[in-house]
């Protein structure tokens, strides 16, 4: 499917969909809890439904649509169909988190996914699990990526992990309380720190004991228990970044975003302060977050804590006076695509003055023109290019538009409701 996009402002009210990161953490914890859990307002998207089906395959009893009820396995995953690989589709978060959970089982468990998943490095997590006593934690193709096989039970003890992807750290932290021995997890190169803080927030909410030393060492006592819980999932700041940027860059825009909680631990809420620093007209009110079209000023942006914002902020940089430099986000190269490379290539097709850095992008204020661009099957790239199309002269055609459903299944409809000229075809 393609998106066909033309210049258009956005005006009105949008309710932001639920958080993918919270939904997947909630489902994974519930699957290993003692008793039943009820998850209200989960995000219903390709990634979260991949998690829904994957924890079912691990043996959890999962039901419901708008509200999920999950009867957990009390820390003992048991495959419904032994010998059948668990397919995580395109969900890297599900793959990482379930890798450590699967290692709690004494039965070999295979996890696999789509072509994008098979390109993602997983070796640091596999090595860490071996350090905790996993019998097997290996790539079947011996390239450090899926398909992988893990077999425990992991016992606990001391291990270290490369935190280039915060998902590796999250995975170990969620499984560690269920191991037989205490865990001492030491992390090098910790990227995306707010995602680890979100995981720690969940551990605290679940009554799990842990100690954090110096920011990159975690001591987690073993033989703990997750108990069933009831939780409503908050709105997703990473999804909100797209309508925020749309309203800032499309002349004549005025949008109110609802459902976002500034007290939530999501790191991407920092985008609000960031665009304020760029002279963006955005404010937090009792009704929601109000955003208006603005004359933006370029600046240097350290994006390590919120790499998912890179595609949208690359488009924002095209509209800011002077130069915008996005730095310290090398992990953006190992997401669904190499987002640094892809955004540079596709925005260049639209006339952007943009170049790659090893760990980011340099963008100069540019007038964009319509073009045929490739979404590369990456939801955030597709949505970011749609924003670019909203300010470009002429029509922009974006391929693989269906991938927006990974985290924002009704992106086109919600943007159209605000007046965006985004057609599917």
Automatic annotation (TrEMBL):
It catalyses: 3-phosphoshikimate + phosphoenolpyruvate = 5-O-(1-carboxyvinyl)-3-phosphoshikimate + phosphate. 3-phosphoshikimate binds at residues 20-21, 25, 165-167, 308, 331, 335. One of its GO terms (cellular component) is cytoplasm. Phosphoenolpyruvate binds at residues 20, 92, 120, 167, 339, 380. It comes from the Bacteria. Residues 6-415 form the Enolpyruvate transferase domain. SUPFAM superfamilies: EPT/RTPC-like. Catalyzes the transfer of the enolpyruvyl moiety of phosphoenolpyruvate (PEP) to the 5-hydroxyl of shikimate-3-phosphate (S3P) to produce enolpyruvyl shikimate-3-phosphate and inorganic phosphate. Monomer. Its main location: cytoplasm. The active site is at residue 308. Its EC number is 2.5.1.19. Belongs to the EPSP synthase family. It is found in: Cytoplasm. Pathway: Metabolic intermediate biosynthesis; chorismate biosynthesis; chorismate from D-erythrose 4-phosphate and phosphoenolpyruvate: step 6/7. This is 3-phosphoshikimate 1-carboxyvinyltransferase. One of its GO terms (biological process) is chorismate biosynthetic process. GO terms for molecular function: 3-phosphoshikimate 1-carboxyvinyltransferase activity. The gene is aroA. HAMAP family: EPSP_synth (MF_00210). Keywords: Amino-acid biosynthesis, Aromatic amino acid biosynthesis, Cytoplasm, Transferase.
